[in-house]
Amino acid sequence: MWGIIISIIMAVIIGLIGDALAGHNMPGGIIGAMIAGFAGAWLGALLLGNWGPVIGNFAVIPAIIGTALFVFLLGLVSRLFRQAA
């Protein structure tokens, strides 16, 4: 039970840090940060591997980099949709 709670807290923290690095383009507030944190951790582990400190089953440095990349790409896609409409 504590593992799930720690994972969710880490996803929110990593999501907020990644959003700050990417220029605050992420919608959804805390829930959006949590989703971005989980997606960014997956993307970061896929691209960079699992190195650095691990907290709550997240390799912190690749997760932050992956989240910043995810939020940046999400911001680009949302701007494209806004221009098309």
List the helices and strands and how they pair.
Blueprint: H1 2-22, H2 29-48, E1 54-55, E2 58-59, H3 60-84
Antiparallel strand pairs: 1-2
Describe this structure in words.
It contains three helices and two strands. It has 85 residues and is mainly alpha-helical. The protein has a two-stranded antiparallel ribbon with strand order 1-2. Strand 1 and strand 2 form a beta hairpin. Helix 1 packs across helix 2 (29-48), helix 1 (2-22) crosses helix 3 (60-84) and helix 2 (29-48) crosses helix 3 (60-84). The longest helix is centred in the last third of the chain and has 25 residues, at 60-84. It starts with a helix and ends with a helix. The model has no long low-confidence stretch (mean pLDDT 85). InterPro entries: Transgly_assoc (IPR007341). Keywords: Cell membrane, Membrane, Transmembrane, Transmembrane helix. This is Membrane protein YeaQ/YmgE (Transglycosylase-associated protein family). It is a multi-pass membrane protein. Belongs to the UPF0410 family.
